[in-house]
Amino acid sequence: MGASMTMQKGTNVAVPAPAVRVELGWRASPGTPDVDGSALLLVSGKVRGDSDFVFYNQPVHGSGAVRHEGKRTAGGVVTDSLAVDFARMEPAIDRVVVAASADGGTFGRVTGLHVRVVDAANGTEIARFDSTDATVETAFILGELYLRQGAWKFRAVGQGYDTGLAGLATDFGISVDEPQQAQQPARPTARAPQQPPVPAAAHRAAPVPPPEPPVVQAVRLTKVTLTKEAPSVSLSKQGGTSGALRVNLNWEVRKQFKGWGAKLGRAVAVHGDLDLDLCALYELTDGSKGVVQALGNAFGSLLQPPYIHLDGDDRTGALSTGENLTVNLDHKDRLRRVLIFVTIYEGARSFADLHATVTLQPQNGAAIDFSLDECTVPSTVCALALITSHGGDLTVQREARYLVPQRGVSPQRTIDAAYGWGMNWTPGRK
């Protein structure tokens, strides 16, 4: 490891690496608010649109240059990571703002808040900035990566906001959809005019600049994070009772695989040949049971039973959008229970050294997310979330349960036994 640089507010340092991981960290202690990292990709100080905001509900930039990779806890420190690949950065982008937001309290209650920039290839620390003067702030710009004469640098900023992530984001031109109550039909956005709306005819006649393009879908800042202490949530309480429920699994390998070689290409290098499969066991109200998985091409269906569909088979993890599975909530009264689980198809003997984030995004309502704990057993199958029906409402429960198959027993049969599904299994391939 080379010598790292602990920075003072306002100072900058060169970033020589072609790709970096930006880690926001803080100490895990009781009463600490939930902290989330985010990034804003700027052109001359502003975003070009809402898609230039990378955060928990929009974890991958369209260019692939910035990814929100989620949280992990080790040694009493929680880190939320952003991966930045300068080779993929669009030429127009000259600045990437690294921000943190606190949910459920102020940064005055967060101890040990810091940001580290490390070389993605070897983990060498390039820079570190510790923020020590927070009081009432609920959002912070900790630092920024910026382009100067063709080279990227990192500046320690330490600027706080008492208006939260919404206030920070709107300062850079993001339109925010954050309803105060789930039942509100209107979607207030941060770009709402200060004056009452002017009739359309008056708009045409008045000598005003051209209006901003309409916002098709403002970014939604509401979310629910499931933890060991609070593992379940009702979908109806989050407003997510109809339309498509998208289940996403994103992963990152902490240790590089040996021998990945140039033939796999730059993008696959940090993932090796690891192939995870997102799957679902289902039981319908008519008693029928089954599995949705890539193995055996059992991709399911949205418009007919089981009303669950696996989008495809992603063999790379966080490269694009991970693995995705969709549940049709318009037929939720036909679902009795759904168990979302993941298996290792090839590339690793267990989930150790793997960091994964699960996000359930209803078409209507708040996102639900959680991280998997560190895996300490030789597990090749992990139960992620259990969705159960209670009087017309669906409850999502975080499982995050690693299982160890006995010799000769498949991961699917192992998870079936653990949750009492009672199915007959035959070998399958994909």
Describe the structure.
This is TerD family protein. Belongs to the CAPAB/TerDEXZ family. The protein has 430 residues and is mostly beta strands. It has 2 domains: 172 residues, Lipoxygenase-1 (Sandwich); 197 residues, sav2460 like domains (Lipoxygenase-1), CATH 2.60.60. It is 5% helix and 41% strand. It contains 3 helices and 27 strands.
Keywords:
single chain, about 425 residues, mainly beta, Lipoxygenase-1, 7-stranded mixed β-sheet, 6-stranded mixed β-sheet, globular, Stress/Tellurium_Resist, Tellurite_resistance_TerA
Shape: globular
Mean pLDDT over the residues: 81
Distance between the termini: 42 Å
Number of domains: 2
Q: From N to C, what is the helix and strand string?
A: EEEEEEEEEEEEHEHEEEEEEEEEEEEEEH
What percent of the residues sit in helical stretches (DSSP H or I)?
under 10%
Briefly summarize what is shown:
The protein is mainly β. The protein has 3 helices and 27 strands.
List the helices and strands and how they pair.
Blueprint: E1 6-7, E2 12-14, E3 19-27, E4 34-42, E5 53-54, E6 66-74, E7 77-85, E8 95-103, E9 114-119, E10 125-130, E11 139-148, E12 151-161, H1 164-171, E13 176-177, H2 200-205, E14 219-220, E15 223-225, E16 232-234, E17 244-253, E18 275-284, E19 289-292, E20 300-301, E21 308-310, E22 323-328, E23 335-346, E24 354-362, E25 367-371, E26 381-390, E27 393-403, H3 411-419
Parallel strand pairs: 1-10, 13-14, 15-25
Antiparallel strand pairs: 2-12, 3-7, 3-9, 4-5, 4-8, 6-7, 8-11, 9-10, 11-12, 16-27, 17-22, 17-24, 18-19, 18-23, 20-21, 21-22, 23-26, 24-25, 26-27
Organism: Streptomyces argenteolus
Family: Belongs to the CAPAB/TerDEXZ family.
InterPro entries: Stress/Tellurium_Resist, Tellurite_resistance_TerA, TerD
